[in-house]
Design brief:
- The protein is an alpha/beta fold and 179 residues long.
- It has one domain: 3-Layer(aba) Sandwich (Rossmann fold).
- 30% of the residues lie in helices and 29% in strands.
- The chain has six helices and eleven strands.
- The protein is globular, with a radius of gyration of 17 Å.
- It starts with 7 loop residues before the first strand and ends in a 5-residue tail after the last strand.
Amino acid sequence: RAVKNGRVITFEPVPEHRELILDHLELNHIKNVKLLSYGIGASFQKTTLLVCEEMGAYSTAHTEQKQRLRNQHKCQEISIEITSLDELIPQKNLPIPDFIKIDVEGLEFAALQGMEQTIKQYQPELFIELHGFNNAQIAHWLLAHDYQIWQVRDGIKITNANTEMAKRFLYASPSKSST
């Protein structure tokens, strides 16, 4: 739960999932959350998202993953808009983030690229759910942007020497020297 005077900005491109979030917020009388209907990526684009409700509401915009899932599961393809955090912050007059949770179903690297200016300027802490695509590349990118990284499950500190250990969940904070 956010601090009483804090604000949470959340992004959800799937209409059914947005409705669930709104229902939850209303049921729990939560007023400090703003819900936007975008996916987060490198820049503005319209794309399709494959939504597989039988897999616990799993969805992906990742091309190879969509092809594999389409052949194995009953899924629905929907049109969505993706934009970057760097574009949205000034456009929607959003507060400067001090913490960002990234769960973008395989588009983690694109999302980071689309918030590069935000990361450089404001150095928010990051919690990233990895979906198995570009994990080492993501770790190298974060390290190059002066972040310390830990693999959450095992508490392993990720360095340039062990980026292959970057799996599932990462916590990244600005290096002491950059703050």
